[in-house]
């Protein structure tokens, strides 16, 4: 599967998951929801390119996720004007999308290795 296709699928999945998380948290402001799409494009693609071409492994993933968390917290703060709420949005959105991605990867590996 070409990298550009994989990046597109991963980015779209992350956007959908994180929008779902925000909606489940009761966020209804269009500006915040649209900003979630923008920040995911701005962070997800560079992170995945970095992990594919520069560094891989658990440490790189962990460090990359920490950077994404910090960037997204500051980003959400610009829209919600509450650092606690921005941090909660960032932590929950990233943790849930990461864990769903991990689960999908593990199920895919299980199915293909059977």
Give the N-to-C terminal Cα separation: 20 Å
Whole-number radius of gyration? 15 Å
Q: Enumerate how many helices there are, as a single number.
A: 4
**N-to-C SSE string, H for helix and E for strand:** HHHH
Please count the beta strands (DSSP E, at least 2 residues each): 0
What percentage of residues falls in helices of 4 or more residues?
Answer: over 70%
- Overall structural class, as computed from helix and strand content, comes to mainly alpha
Low-pLDDT residue spans? none
Strand content: under 5%
Coarse morphology: globular
| Major sheet description | none
Mean pLDDT over all positions:
95
In words, what does this structure look like?
The protein is mostly helical and 114 residues long. It is globular, with a radius of gyration of 15 Å. Helix 1 packs antiparallel against helix 2, helix 2 packs antiparallel against helix 3 and helix 3 (57-80) packs antiparallel against helix 4. It is 89% helix and 0% strand. The protein has helices spanning 3-24, 30-53, 57-80, 83-113. It has four helices and no strands.
Key structural traits:
114 residues, 0% strand, 89% helix, globular, single chain
Report a brief summary of the structure.
This protein is an all-alpha fold and 114 residues long. 89% of the residues lie in helices and 0% in strands.
Helices and strands in order:
Blueprint: H1 3-24, H2 30-53, H3 57-80, H4 83-113
Helix pairs in contact: 1-2, 1-4, 2-3, 3-4
């Amino acid at each position: 599967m070409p990298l550009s296709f994989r990046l597109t699928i991963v980015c779209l999945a992350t956007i959908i998951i994180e929008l779902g998380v925000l909606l489940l948290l009761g966020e209804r402001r269009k500006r915040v929801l649209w900003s979630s799409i923008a920040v995911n494009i701005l962070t997800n693609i560079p992170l995945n390119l970095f992990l594919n071409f520069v560094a891989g492994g658990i440490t790189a993933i962990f460090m990359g996720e920490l950077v994404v968390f910090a960037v997204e917290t500051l980003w959400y703060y610009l829209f919600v004007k509450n650092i606690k709420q921005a941090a909660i949005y960032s932590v929950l959105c990233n943790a849930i999308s990461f864990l769903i991605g991990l689960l999908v990867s593990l199920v895919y590996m299980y199915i293909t290795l059977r």
